Amino acid sequence: MHDVRLIRNDPEWFDKAMARRGLPPQSKVILEKDSARRAAQTAAQEQQTRRNALSRQVAEGRRKGEDTAALEAEASALRAETEALEKSAAELEAEIRDILAGLPNVLDAEVPDGADETANLVVKIWGEPRDPGFQPKQHDELGIALGMMDFATAAKLSGSRFTLLRGPLARLERALGQFMIDLHTREHGYEETVVPLLVNDAAVFGTNNLPKFADDLFRTTDGRWLIPTAECPLTNTAAGEIIPEKRLPIRITALSDCFRSEAGAAGKDTRGMIRQHQFRKVELVSIAHPEQSDEEHERMTTCAERVLELLQIPYRRVVLCSGDTGFGAAKTFDLEVWLPGQQMYREISSCSNMRDFQARRMNARFRGADGKIGFAHTLNGSGLAVGRTLIAVMENYQTADGAIVMPQVLGPYLRGLDRIAA
Fold first, then answer.
1. pLDDT by residue (tens digit) across 233-265?
2. Which one from 349, 350, 352, 382 is the annotated catalytic residue?
3. Any idea where the domains of the chain sit in the sequence?
4. Number of H-type helices and E-type strands within the chain
5. In CATH, what class is 117-420?
6. What are the CA-CA distances from residue 234 to residues 97, 115, 172, 231, 375 (Å)?
7. Count of C-beta atoms within a 10 Å radius of residue 18
8. Catalytic annotation on 293?
9. Catalytic position from the list 8, 130, 224, 275
10. Where are the beta strands (DSSP E) in 313-421?
11. What CA–CA distance (Å, rounded) separates 407 from 410?
């Protein structure tokens, strides 16, 4: 959500910011409505002042036994006019809010311009893809051959874009989630949280999923929403709060199931379990002081990278360009992991600084040491998507005979399981 005062002070800056998002100028219609709203509010206040004066005159006249009918009639007319002005101001306020709710965040100056992912900028490469000495398979080939990745039964139960994992492969998936949550809580200072998987409209609006992305979500019959990631409940823990500055940054994490309709993904990544309706993910969220958020963004991304480094899986970090940066983000780092079966890097984490965009939507504020109150900055990132990490382990640790060697760092979670084979 944007601050109307900033648009009022520099409409040209705002229009340029929206142009980087591929949008036409927005300030004119916003400021026209804002001007009309302020005029209605001012008129209503003036009418109220006049009504108050008339009320005093009526009271004084009655004490003196004077005829106050004309004054009372004027006061009654003013009341109707005031209510009409207040209603008009409220309607204009709602219209402005609706417009602002549909506009994306202002991009950081360091975000490269570009129409799509082809303009993303690689800023770091860690590790080198290994030459396995044989033609590597994709994860779904490996999983089906092992008899532990069952798409047919999942489709029978739930339809497309679901996967049923069995035996040691299910155990590996569980181990990865536990490893990640332990790493982030024990070494990176995040507080583990168990979150509701169902949230209300306000929570989904606060993390900018509503109103624009309603079609990407699943809704229950009682009007609640299945969370697309734990970002939604974790970030909204700050909604409506005024947090003492000394508590910032707040770092919280959750391992949760996540649900997405993938409404816009028809025909995309239909093979395997890259893009699912239901998946598990470790989410990282920070509530930060505005002066800390850039530093916190780098720290969060490094925490996510550490997972892949400990698993010894090659990855690269990219800065998303203007055309690929998400609606609510000012700047996003994507981590892309090497998948030898596909012979390409694929996204496994997005870490975003939302600045005060979400905080304004959910009224999440902090009180500084000087007593002044301001909007906090919110950040979120994948630390990591568990299913995609499972895919990366399967493809990078596969052997020529179709087995999968377990990463050494997972030893404490697998208790003797060092190899998955048919």
1. 999 999 999 999 999 999 999 999 999 998 666
2. 350
3. 4-101, 117-420
4. 13, 18
5. alpha beta
6. 24, 31, 26, 5, 17
7. 19
8. no
9. 275
10. 315-319, 331-339, 344-353, 365-367, 373-375, 377-385, 404-405, 419-420
11. 6
